[in-house]
Amino acid sequence: MTEPEGSEPAQDLSDQDIFAVLDSDHRALLELADRAATTGGADELAVHCEQLVMLAVRHFVAEEQYLFPLMRQHLPDGDRSVHRLSDAHRHLESELRRLEDVERSPQAVGPILADVRARLVDHVESLSQAFASLRGEIDPAEAQRLGDDVLGVEQLAPTRPRLDHSDSPALNKLVSLVEGYVDRIRDAYTHRGVERDER
Description:
The chain has about 200 residues and is mostly helical.
């Protein structure tokens, strides 16, 4: 996933494993949430909120397709953990949908952003132990291959909060490809998530 505009130069993740890639996503999402919460003008606020939504949805899609199967296979309570994380994704995407629909003013956006950030912090913390456990179970070469897969799927994933979530990775991949294609066309046409001076 690409680091937000204005942050430190993005680390090349092409040779990183799945855990390093997802950790980088987590840092980028929290940074973007903080930037949106402290921004000044309405236009800048709108762009940062759009970028946050786009990056979060892509990240969730990647986790569901590649991380969740690992958790189910290798963690003793994997099914329960995945169910809990799936619910968290749904709740977060519901809040992200509110963020897209609400009037873009600090007064209206502030409480939603605060809730989104708190949920993201919970998300990161809930996965830190899972990552530590999985690193001992996954072959390093396989973990690196999965890191490449995550980077690839994030380029094709939807960028808008989804209404439906499938527990089937195969169905998830198919639906994501279709939704992602439509979202990218809409994003390009509307310049969604792009700074005004870069349009």
